[in-house]
């Protein structure tokens, strides 16, 4: 596995040998083929924004192993596990996915569709579920509604474009010039290249705006929403200290006084929704976009790549052959 004992630069990550983990009663041990990283892993490594330490450990990392997304083979099962057996190909969520063997609850895994690779499967859980929960559950997107996805070429955005299309929406993506073709290929009906056009000045209005970047003012976003539209804010982490809290809380505090709905949400992994995504993968309603693949020893480079804010699709860590 790769881990760090203190918060700081990704250079502090180093390869370590640990004892083979033993699954608890409801846990499955997975021999990892691939893991995926996302922005949250960068926060976990740096320990910033400080608020994140409530989850990852106040003074030093509780776990210190990056990665929440995993795909591989079931290697052992706890005595109460009913859904999986040794040899099954699975994907799902776990703490510390950047390791050869990981244990996680059976309720955070689903069977990997045979139609996709392990790398593609590892790409799905955090970002696919975040997109599904935002569009299906928070915004309750209906057929023929207009949906604007800001950050359409990123980890969450590439799933969001495809999921919004499969819900029957008319989808507009926002990305930069090199990613316009990608976002169109995912099914977006319209694309704003933000280096040339400004969605907030276009005069178009959307029933739902899913903002994965949050570099625009609330008034810009509200101007592009229909009078009763929903704005889902899904970042808020660019600022620090008090401005971070203001950015996080202001929309929630003013929303009850508006006809428009401004919201944040927390996507929680669960087996039922992983299975929903598995069905969408089987039918090719969604296809994961993999930007770059790194080896375990290159995890620090992968973290730095995500930190640029320019990562395309998902960033994968290839760990073993899983067999
Ligand atoms: N609510 C939840 O439970 C939950 C769960 C998972 C993730 N999240 C959050 O979701 C957010 C997005 O995560 P992610 O993994 O999708 O991020 P990401 O993959 O790191 O986003 C990178 C992408 O953002 C695009 N981008 C950068 N600046 C942009 C701009 N001004 N306008 C449009 N696109 C821009 C880049 O494309 P270009 O190079 O084309 O600019 C790049 O493709 C994060 O803040 C994460 O914390 C929330």
UniProtKB/TrEMBL annotation:
<dbReference type="GO" id="GO:0016491">
    <property type="term" value="F:oxidoreductase activity"/>
</dbReference>
<dbReference type="InterPro" id="IPR020843">
    <property type="entry name" value="ER"/>
</dbReference>
<dbReference type="InterPro" id="IPR036291">
    <property type="entry name" value="NAD(P)-bd_dom_sf"/>
</dbReference>
<dbReference type="InterPro" id="IPR011032">
    <property type="entry name" value="GroES-like_sf"/>
</dbReference>
<dbReference type="InterPro" id="IPR052733">
    <property type="entry name" value="Chloroplast_QOR"/>
</dbReference>
<dbReference type="Pfam" id="PF13602">
    <property type="entry name" value="ADH_zinc_N_2"/>
</dbReference>
<dbReference type="InterPro" id="IPR013154">
    <property type="entry name" value="ADH-like_N"/>
</dbReference>
<feature type="domain" description="Enoyl reductase (ER)">
    <location>
        <begin position="8"/>
        <end position="317"/>
    </location>
</feature>
<protein>
    <submittedName>
        <fullName>Alcohol dehydrogenase zinc-binding domain containing protein</fullName>
    </submittedName>
</protein>
<dbReference type="Pfam" id="PF08240">
    <property type="entry name" value="ADH_N"/>
</dbReference>
């Amino acid at each position: 596995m790769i881990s760090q004992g203190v918060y700081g630069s990704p250079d502090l990550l180093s390869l370590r040998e640990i004892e083979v983990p033993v699954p608890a009663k409801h846990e499955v041990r997975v021999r990892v083929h691939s893991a995926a990283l996302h922005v949250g892993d960068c926060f976990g490594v740096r320990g910033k924004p400080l608020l994140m330490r409530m989850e990852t450990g106040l003074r030093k990392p509780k776990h210190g192993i990056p990665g929440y997304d995993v795909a591989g083979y079931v290697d052992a099962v706890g005595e109460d596990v009913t859904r999986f057996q040794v040899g099954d190909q699975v994907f799902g969520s776990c703490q510390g996915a950047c390791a050869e063997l990981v244990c996680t609850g059976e309720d955070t895994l689903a069977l990997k569709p045979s139609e996709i690779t392990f790398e593609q499967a590892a790409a799905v859980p955090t970002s696919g579920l975040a997109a599904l929960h935002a569009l299906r559950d928070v915004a309750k997107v209906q057929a023929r509604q207009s949906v604007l996805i800001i950050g359409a070429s990123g980890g969450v955005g590439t799933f969001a474009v495809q999921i919004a299309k499969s819900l029957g929406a008319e989808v507009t993506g926002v990305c930069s010039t090199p990613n316009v073709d990608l976002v169109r290929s995912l099914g977006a009906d319209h694309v704003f290249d933000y280096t040339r056009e400004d969605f907030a000045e276009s005069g178009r209005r959307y029933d739902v705006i899913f903002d994965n970047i949050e570099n625009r003012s609330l008034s810009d976003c509200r101007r592009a929403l229909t009078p009763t539209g929903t704005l889902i804010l899904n970042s808020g982490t660019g600022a620090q200290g008090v401005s971070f809290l203001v950015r996080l809380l202001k929309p929630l505090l003013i929303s009850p006084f508006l006809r428009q709905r401004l919201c944040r949400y927390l996507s929680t992994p669960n087996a039922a929704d992983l299975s929903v995504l598995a069905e969408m993968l089987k039918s090719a309603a969604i296809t994961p976009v993999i930007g770059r693949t790194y080896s375990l020893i290159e995890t620090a480079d992968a973290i730095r790549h995500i930190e640029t804010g320019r990562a395309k699709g998902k960033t994968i860590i290839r760990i073993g052959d899983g067999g």
